[in-house]
Write a structure and sequence with these properties.
It is built from four helices and four strands. It is an alpha+beta fold.
């Protein structure tokens, strides 16, 4: 059983300066076809300062920084036991190429289901 003492624990900060090439690559990888995600002129015409990041892009900032690996090591959970269950996003404003973002994550909950056969880790990121 994963120790619930870690609920509320803050994970290391993740940060990145968003680059156009990376944003274009990500948009292409997720099948995004809206030109605002690949063409600077289209993005600016739509009111963005530069290429906007697709909403799910910020998850990759957290992944690249090793935050999730650090969390699993802290909780002593082997990667082979992990199954991604769900994620949701609330976007307050667009972030664009050239912006520097910081992602603050914490362990929000740890709970079991099916009599302990399934354990869940809920991580929030802002």
């Amino acid at each position: 059983m994963i120790d619930t003492k870690w609920i509320g624990h803050e994970l290391p900060l993740a940060w990145a300066t968003l680059e156009r090439g990376r944003l274009r690559f990500f948009a292409q990888a997720i099948g995004e076809t809206d030109p605002v995600y690949s063409d600077v002129d289209a993005a600016r015409a739509a009111g963005y300062a530069d290429l906007p990041a697709p909403p799910t892009f910020l998850m990759s900032v957290d992944l690249d920084a090793g935050t999730i690996d650090a969390m699993l090591a802290l909780l002593e959970v082997p990667l082979a036991r992990i199954l991604h269950g769900e994620q949701g996003f609330t976007c307050h404003r667009a972030v664009c190429a050239g912006d520097t973002v910081t992602v603050r994550s914490r362990i929000a909950d740890i709970h079991a289901k099916k009599g302990g056969a399934l354990e869940f880790i809920v991580k929030t990121a802002e």
